[in-house]
């Protein structure tokens, strides 16, 4: 089960992901309560987190092109450094009492832009660190490690900001990016050999689009997640902290997020041992469990109920995450992988800022509970829509190939 750890490059990638995720788990809790302390408005919180998402969506495709052109480790080094700077600036504003919503929106947009170059490179680099026959195990192990970081980070973040201030939580996130940048600097993988090296950015985007759109199962799932993600983040990142502030507090909300991630860790352990031919179908069925947390927030916003809902959702969603990564890495040529990932992320993320920014006004107009029930309904409808596509139900995982050589 732990065979991917034999490869030094994979170990470095895991260490970098663990470090950045550890700080990243603190950041959402810290930022949410920092903005709520500043203005008390979930609409303002939606604007700040939405600005990050908008910038992320705008630049994702260019991030994919760059990750197919340059060594992906180099992109990770640069993005870690810039993320440390932007998060450090936000932390300093809160710690010195100079934070305002317009400045926070601008810095959140910077952070989202940097992340747009990080995501495709980080997703596409993993197949370069292990043999093809061990990718499912490597994807599960990577999810296990990053989720473990979130288990520690989310509750520690809640306790940290309860004991000190949200600004210190954001400072921890900035420091984690600096350390992950150092780890990525030790990870050396070459650019993937490919044709068309002299092509323009537009031509490369078009070739990535052809690769993406030619696979029905791929674009159908991305389309489903366009709606699912918008509903999920509206409930969890905007309405959830507002409800928690009035019920279980910052520490309690951090604990819920940590328990949800504990479920994801268990889910990753389960996925390591799964030998299912139609892995993607199983993953899509399981992802419907994301409706549980919005329903718990609507009808039972207590620590036990939210913890159970988060834990079950975490176990289930991890089956999808591993199935999706494994299917992508199996079906998409390595030289196109980062660009296809960028289209995947663009489609999956494009409606997130809409959900984040609309959650506050909609909840004010019709009530928080009906809005949360609506979010749960959208999640279930999106899941059903994905399963209605035959290719999603029938795509099979190829038998494990003999381990091929990987430079170590």
**Would you identify the regions where 5 or more consecutive residues have pLDDT less than 50?**
401-408
DSSP strand count: 0
- Give the H and E element order: HHHHHHHHHHHHHHHH
Q: Quick check: average pLDDT? A: 85
Give the termini separation. 19 Å
Number of helices: 16
Summarize the structure in short.
By secondary structure, the protein is mostly helical. The protein contains 16 helices and no strands. It starts with 7 loop residues before the first helix and ends in a 14-residue tail after the last helix.
Explain what you see.
With 408 residues, the chain is mainly alpha-helical. The protein is built from 16 helices and no strands. α2 packs parallel to α4 and α5 (135-163) packs antiparallel against α9. The relative contact order is 0.17.
